Amino acid sequence: MLADEGELRGLIGPREVPRLWRRHILNSAAVGSLLPASGTVADVGSGAGLPGIVLAIMRPDLEFDLIEPMERRADWLAEVIEALDLDNVTIHQVRAEELHKKRTYDVVTARAVAGMDKLLRFTVPLIGAGGRLLALKGRRVYEEIEDAKYVLKKFRAEVVAVHEIDVLGDGDVTFVAEVQRA
What we know:
By secondary structure, this protein is an alpha/beta fold.
């Protein structure tokens, strides 16, 4: 669906279709090994369904809330969920901040949403007791963490690990910053 309609619907760029599998799908799947045995997952800024839809397919035993404020993207997500018959996914067409103090999750995921300092402001209030943020980041992950040190302190959160996951074992690494509330 994403290969057929993603560019036309403004979900991915024109150069992304040939790289869709490796750059987007497998990149999203890298988080799968870090998900808990049970619980709830919020995907902030779900957009094209990356990583939320990919993870919901991989882990039908978990409950996923896709948080996407843009109507056209939320409509897309609803079409994909219906086409794939995913019964473990709910869409929230709101900004993440609108769920602060209303909902918390065992895991919050985010991919290509914002720099770490800004991302933490959206996501840390959604992390429940003992929960964590799994932020898919690029090679600048360590710089972003350094730039976010004051925001981490403000929210009493800490980066407990940066996972470098090579899904295919070919040197193409996905960086996942794991953040917990203190």
